[in-house]
Predict the structure.
Amino acid sequence: MVASRQLWIAFFGLAVLLTLPLWVSAYVLGVLTIAYYFGVFAMSWDLLFGFANEVNFGPTFLIGSGAYAAGLLNAHGVPLWLCLIAGAAAALLGGVVLAVPALRLTGPYFGLSTLVAVLLLQQFIIVFAGSTGGEIGLTMNDILSTEAITNYWYALAFMTVSGAILFALSRSPVGLILQASGQDRFGASALGFNVVKHKLAAFCISAVFSGLAGAMLVFYLGTASVGTVVDVSVGVQVIIAAVLGGRRTIVGAGIGAIFLILAGEALRPLGQLSTFVVSGVALLVILFSVDGLMGLLQRRRDES
Amino acid sequence: MLAVQILIDGFAISALYGLGAVGFTLMFGVSGVLNLAHGATMVVAAVAAWVVAGQLAASPWMAAVAGTAAGVITAFATYFLVVRPIQRSKSVPAAEKEIFVLTGTLLWGIMIQETVAYFYTDNPKSVQPLIAGVMQIGGVRTPINELLIAVICWAVIGLLWLLVHRSKAGKVLLAASINPRALTLLGFELSRVYLSVWAIYGVLAGIAGVLLATFLGASSAQASQLTASAFSIVVLGGLGSVAGSLLAAYVVGYLETLTAYLISPTYRSMPALVLLVIVLYVRPRGLLGRR
Amino acid sequence: MRAPGTAAAPLLEVQGLTKRFGGLVAAKNITFQVRPGEILGLIGPNGSGKSTVMQLIMGLHRPNAGSVHIAGVDVAGWPPHRIARQGVGIVFQHSRPLHRQTVLENIMLGLLPDNLLKVITNRHVHDKARQIAERVGLGGVLNRKPSSLAFADLRRMELAKAIARDPLVVLVDEPFAGLTSGEVAAFSRLIAEFRRDGRAVLLVDHNVKSIAALADRIFAMYLGERIAEGTAEEVTGDPTVRRVYLGGGIDVASRPARTARSTPLLEIQDVSVLYGKAQALDRVAIHVDEGEFVSIVGLNGAGKTTLFNAISGLVPYSGRISWNGSDLRGRSPAAIARGGIVQCPETRELFGDMSVRENLDLAGQHLAAAQAAQQLKWLFDLFPRLRDRERQIARTLSGGEQQMLAIARSLMMRPKLLILDEPTLGLAPLILEQISNALEQLRSNTPITVLLGEQNVTFALPHADRIYVLEHARIVWEGAPSRFAAEAAATYL
């Protein structure tokens, strides 16, 4: 079954990642730390897209809400762990706010409304620069840790736990209902499922994980800025990561994110062109290998 | 005299927004494609005009023609390299085609943006006004160029209207936006219709980009903002409705101008965004949308 | 399990059910009951309102008047998922599996509660799903994905999903469409078991024939109203029903003899079409000679539209379709239309937001201006009502006027072969006569060749030189109209 194959890949990968600090530099660990948080972004997006069939073009609305809520509270002296919870809660609220019109809109309108939400959030932050730090960013009072290795463990643990939960959800009865709601809305109703309730739930789950990851990311970085957690381009990268890894697999999204961040770093010497190359690769994936990396693996398994 | 200033500036900027939005909505109405590389296409046209004017020392009018041509080339590139392959792809499920095209054009737009930035940096490029000088209108000194922009935009929109409503080819385009299947049954090749839509789109986006360069300047960093403005306007006006886009362009244009003059330029995009959110909650099909 | 129906209260009771869509009354004052252990057949042609009634029971629409009671509870206006939980299971006309899940998972879905907290799979649910799968005959394919299943197995899976939660009422839309006779027997047995379970079963179909053996009673509808109710024999013999399906007396106008050319104008050989797994056309062979008026007679779902779409190049097919001797394969649909084969589809496909004149002008764009003007004048003479409404927006026209416009628009292209798909669907008799007259004029005054697809035999026969009967994707009869009454009419209904 595909599930076992995915799980084995995940276990093997995890084992490798656990041992990395032993033989890799602090710089690489830093890149991977960011990649792991990105992984959670992508996996949350994949839950919403893969299962509820809703394309969120502005995942950074949820990520940014969580990040800035945590950051602003921290700036007022709220302890770190409480800020994280608040961040998740703020993102949850954002998810509900986004879901309400979304569930009445179809086709391109929903995608557009998610994009608009991001633009609004961005404007808000810039306009109220006095409190939020505007384009420059907000400096956090606390950070997770000063040690690269500790930060690495935190990020890896977070990604693993989040991934496990999201994956388990996708394979659970609730996940099955979500898939049905996404694939065939009326068929699911005819089988007795309140589709609206389930899609709303999918939004909320996606929001909580995105927001929490966003909050953790800014506590790692030490600053919250529009360019790292709100900008549309960040959102696009999240989508690329999930599509690259393979839609609807959860695990694929995580792998895609790690691949993308590493590739971005590796291409840094190219300067301006790095974004170009990454976007180009993503475009090629969309054109030629619609099911992404996991799809390639699946195909090789089917052929053998 | 502030009122007159606002009136004139608002009119000009709205006309420019309108031209960009009309192309965007025409593309959606006829071929169902939301081209998220729209802003990038405008930027290419603007930069091409700048290159031709600056490096080839051509007149602003030559530069304008070159810029428009660049817009058309970019539009065709978008169609043949990104949109058409996805639409014809056998591995993308039919229900997801729209989303893939959307994502594909988004990525393509980023690629174009980065290419322009790589070769020409992301500093704003501007082109000399097509007609230099100022005029007095209602006691306000207004650059003639600004008025010219409004005139050109409306002339182009007027020509487009004539094309669509009075010419045989235009009727075919209109029909394609209503019922493409019926058009096939009447012996019209849809592939040719789509080609002509992309060509018209390229011209509209190209002209808009060139005019933008003469007015405010354009930089590759603005590409996403331009796309965002265009589709906000189009959604506000109603996807697929040209009249709606024009109306919405003026609403947004004046809202922005009023905000910039009366409150602060930093806040100029806010009211339009808020309006858009309200519309999406209350009347998702927009002011004049029918679907 | 409940004890099968004695004088038990009805499980499904529909009373005075009425639904309007704008100006159209889709269902008018429909009343019937289905008791436990009873199978009711709801029949009617397209546009009869039977689908609307089904949708009202399911909760897809809110009725304008009337009630729907499931085991005594009024569910009219409830959302579909609540009605489903109240005890209604539905088997849709087209299978709708979840493609990324296995058969077992698809069936399990039907057993899950509508609960957000169900995070752990219940062993019990697994076993029950397995049981149900075995009951419908899917025991051997539990771990396969739907894409690898045969058509009949997909239908079995739909049955399984519908009965998973032990519903009181089962609605089945077109139970036997696309099945071979062996499969039909197996499905009949399964549905008969529902009767033994004590459920109330509502079978919805186009004609009595396919469900006669299974249904205890039949309820026949036409144009939104009940036209007959009773046993299968009673309904088949009912004069109104016969008129609706066969028409009154079958008039046949004598045709002048035609000299057949050696090559048919249109020749269809061994053509088959598959929609996914469903066989929509099965080795169909027909030919149409120049100047002939050929009618393809068949009920909804028989395959007429599929055949026409294959000719027009709109669906892929196997076999050979030749036009004037040359193969049509590979030509684009637009090219085929320009080449002289013009289809006026069942759905009419008008440009709703454009005027009558604009619709016609578009069709005439391929002609020279003078020719187009002449053609337009001729068409306005043929359909004077269109001339009166030249500037009117197409979608505001009445059904009959829209049909006239659709036909006129097709004729504007000066076709050599005009394909007319169900032109009389849902139209009032007066309009039918006008269209019939127009066709007669075409027939007598122009060299046009016509291929007419109809389920309304009364309309089809008078104009036809030859008839083909299409049933379940196959041509089952061919001959002159005069012989139709004697040979084919009896088995048609």
About this structure: Chain C has two domains: 12-246, 266-492. The CA atoms of residues 107 and 115 of chain C lie 17 Å apart. DSSP finds 19 helices and 20 strands in chain C. Chain C touches chain B at residues 312, 314, 332-335, 337-338, 342-343, 345, 349-354, 358, 361-363, 365-366, 409, 413 (CB under 8 Å).
